Amino acid sequence: MGPILKIEKVAFRYVSEWVLDGIDLEVNRGEVVGILGPNGSGKSTLLRVIEGLCEPERGNVFVKGTDISKLSRVSLSREVAMVQQENHFSFSFSVLEVVLMGRFPYLGNFQFEGEEDIEVARKAMTATSTLSLSGRLINELSGGEKQRVLLARALTQEPSIILLDEPTAFLDLSYKKEIFDLISSLSRQTGVSALIVTHDIDLAARYCNRLLMLRDGRLHASGLPVEVLNAANIEAIFGCKVIVDINPVSGSPRVSLI
Ligand code: ADP
Ligand code: MG
Q: What is the pTM for the complete model shown?
């Protein structure tokens, strides 16, 4: 089988300046790929391009071999799901209602969820340990619980790939680890791929199969975490001096500020 996601020479700009330029990327089934880069380097824009919200001016994005510019929004939503950094719901939906929103690409206008949809949601909630929260209100959950629910909603879309934009930004260390653990085990168990924008470099090093580094909308480096995470690359993209050694327990690269 070919890659789930393939990006070829993508360039995009909102106004006059290129925000993405010459981006190439492939993500295979079940792979967890991390995107690192400073603020403003184009990470969220890249996810928006893959979601079909920003149309590249040059280059192409293929999902399971189909150019996404030829797919309807609904068809694309059956393949690509998004978990945002932070979600404020203006109306206080129940957790079950939020998770069931993930079925939108499968329901017609004014069609209510059927038993099959509820079963898909139930499975996603079991996988993310959110079933016991189903009657709670989304706005009353802790940050970690909320992110698990949003992951359940994404799974309910039954996508081939989940895009996550800084999903652990507002979580404490144990919740950050929990989210990365969850994504990693879901990808192994279900074959879903994940593309994660994150500033948690050590967690990305440990949980991602591959990493990309973006700088000013261009790929600065890509490869295995051990190949990409070195002091020169980190200094080049973040502009600060670091030491990179190996975590003696996990064996993955560890980045410390000097
Ligand atoms: P990152 O997620 O890496 O912080 P973004 O993709 O959000 O970066 O932004 C990349 C660049 O595009 C920034 O210079 C930002 O100001 C600009 N940008 C982002 N969104 C818009 C928009 N809707 N309109 C115009 N410029 C934007
Ligand atoms: Mg961003």
A: 0.96
Q: What is the pLDDT of residues 166-210, one digit of tens each?
A: 999 989 999 999 999 999 999 999 999 999 999 999 999 999 999
Q: Do residues 120 and 156 lie in contact, with contact meaning Cβ atoms separated by under 8 Å?
A: yes
Task: Report DSSP state, residue 111.
Answer: P
**Ligand 1 atom closest to residue 14's alpha carbon, by position in its atom list:** 25
SS3 state at 63: strand
CB distance 42 to ligand 1 below 6 Å: yes
Instruction: Say whether 217 sits in a helix, a strand or coil.
Output: coil
Residue 4 carries which DSSP code?
S
Q: Kindly indicate the confidence band of residue 1, based on its pLDDT and cuts at 50, 70 and 90.
A: confident
Tokens of 35: 């995107």
| Pocket probe mutation, ligand 1, options 19, 23, 199, 213, max atoms within 8 Å of Cβ | 19
| E-state strands within the chain | 5-12, 20-27, 32-36, 58-63, 66-67, 80-83, 161-165, 193-197, 210-215, 218-223, 242-246, 253-257
* Under 8 Å between Cβ of 240 and 218: no
Q: pLDDT tens-digit profile of 58-77?
A: 999 999 999 999 999 999 99
* Any atom of ligand 1 within 6 Å of the Cβ of 176: no
